[in-house]
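JOB MANIFEST
job_type = single_chain_structure
chain_count = 1
residues = 208
[input]
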Amino acid sequence: MNKQINYLVFFIFLIAIYSCSAKKDYPGLEYAPNMYHAVPYEPLKQIKDKDAGNWVNSDNDIYGEYYSSNPNNPHEMNMRIPPANTVKRTKDGWLPYRIPKDSFELAARILINPLDSTEQIIEQGKALYEVFCIACHGEKGQGDGLVGQVMKGVPAYNVGRVKEVNEGHIFHVITMGKGRMYSHGSQIKPTDRWKIVKYVQTLQNQPN
């Protein structure tokens, strides 16, 4: 008898699991659905049926749990198109970086470091340099880092043409890369790149 009851319970369990599964246009059932549906407006979700999810409504408003459109916007949109000719800036108020990769002269001409040459900024730039740059460029910027010794040809900062390049050029190289040096724009935030520039400039001024 007990075995038959166990089989029956197991059979009911299988039916319950199967009935919850999604198929074709049926999304399936959710356990505790009010845990899956956010109260804030979700930009990439658009359910305009105000009665959707009435049966699980948990926020005591006039709409169903699944209704996710913004009734205050045109077409009940959650996302709004920005005004014409506007450009998104970073949290620091900077425009997106759009100087082409090989435009070193342009970068050198128009880019100006927004940071002051304070001791704190230079120390922070040094710390970042030791994380991202020292392997190739070496502790003193002589191109003798562990990787630089293997690759050969990594220039010293205080010799020849490299000694003369300005802050805009250095920032552009860090951002977009040059030659065998890959871009670090995705690894290092703009503010931190400018801090590294400040420190690199101190290495440019070292005596030969």
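[summary]
The mean pLDDT is 85.
Helices lie at 2-20, 104-110, 119-132, 134-137, 146-151, 160-164, 167-176, 190-204.
exit_status = 0
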